[in-house]
Amino acid sequence: MWFDEVESIAELFRGYLPYYLVIALPIFIIISPANPVAASHEFPVYRMQQFDLHGVQYGCRSAPINMEAKALSTWSSSRHCVISKIQDLSMERFKEISEKAGALVVVLPSDLTALSIEDRQNILELEDLMMEREVSIPVYFTHWNPSIDDVLTDLSTTIPTTPQPARGSALETLMHSVSANGYQIVVNTHQSHTRTDVSVANIQGKLGGHGMEDKLPTVAIVAHYDSFGVAPDLAFGADSNGSGVAVLIELARIFSQLYSSQRTHAKFNLMFLLSGAGKLNYQGTKKWLEDHIDSIDGSPLQNAHFVICLDALSSGKDIYVHYSKPPKEGTATSNFFQELTQAAKELNPEVKVELMHKKINLADKRMFWEHERLSMKRMAGFTVSALKSHQDYSRATILDNTIDTESIAQKASILSEALARYIYNLSAEDVFTENLVRQT
């Protein structure tokens, strides 16, 4: 009889238990302390850079996301959207995710200025890698906050979807799956497409010299105003090239005061240009040169002694002058280099002026300095920067969000002194601030 009862109970489990589970499990989830509604979060995200340059595609090629969220250690297929802190994302992992996952959300620190030197360098290298290739999956960036931290914690405690040894019993796995939080990453947006309505804006001004302007020599000062980074909405470009723009405006202010007085109105035309699309092979500068050099009408730029390009002047104390072709002794460019070196010695002996020669490689898809546009037109031009190399990662990064105002003021002072000595033909003893400013 006892065996008959056991058999009846076994038959009950075989026949009705699956139906009880279907009813009971949702009830367990509802009454569970972890409220499913509380796991819903909304936060702003910023899409990765995307652009085409000379037929070559760069950056993220897709935009919408509607996928299950997984941590860096638990994702397994193209149906998963990986969410990870940028400090945990190596170059090798990014390559794997971009080839095999469905999407990627990168969590940035809430304070980018508090990064360690090692973390900062790793992010710079990762950012450069991401922007130098085409990425087929959607990639977004967001800043850390407590809600996102909760999501990351929940995802990191979820069991991996790939088989792991010594996982535990099947019941343990089932209970873990029931109690764990799951997330769906949704970005409702249209698919990306090429924009054909983008226009590049240049802002230019001129201080005409004393006399017949079309007969006078010209010096031009140029700075591009664009920022660049792996996520356009997060790229502020404080140093590259906010500092260059700031110094250009300061030079325009100083010399406009001098040119407003007849006693200090130099026999030089000064042209100023804030150029657009600087990070896209300096397309704004290219258009500006075509308008002034290739035009039929005469332009003061056609009589330019040289063009000074300003880029990233805040990141170091020294001054590096980058050029494509070494100037001959006694030329206008060579003379200005001497004035710049002398002005730096007198105003701040700690500041070194170093000349950096780099030939233009026509096989390169990217132009690295703005003066290269001038060199291709056989014009005398050079770039003044606090960066020693064109390969410095800080020229194109979302970490470029602070500047050293003291360094910028110092560079502006040295450049204005050197330029004043050149156009007014002053000796080294005639200090700019003590003579010209006093006369105005």
UniProtKB/TrEMBL annotation:
GO biological process, one term: regulation of signal transduction
Record CDD domains: M28_nicalin_like (cd03882)
Superkingdom of origin organism: Eukaryota
Recorded GO CC terms: endoplasmic reticulum membrane
Coarse class of the protein's main subcellular location: endoplasmic reticulum
Transmembrane regions listed in the UniProt entry: 20-39
UniProt-listed Pfam families: Peptidase_M28
Keywords noted in UniProt: Endoplasmic reticulum, Glycoprotein, Membrane, Signal, Transmembrane, Transmembrane helix
Entry-linked Gene3D superfamilies: Zn peptidases
Cell location: Endoplasmic reticulum membrane
Domain Peptidase M28 per the UniProt entry, residue ranges: 205-356
Classification via SUPFAM superfamilies: Zn-dependent exopeptidases
InterPro entries (alphabetical): Nicalin, Peptidase_M28
Membrane-topology descriptor: Single-pass membrane protein
Family statement drawn from the similarity comment of this UniProt entry: Belongs to the nicastrin family.
Protein name per the record: BOS complex subunit NCLN
Organism classification: Eukaryota, Metazoa, Ecdysozoa, Arthropoda, Hexapoda
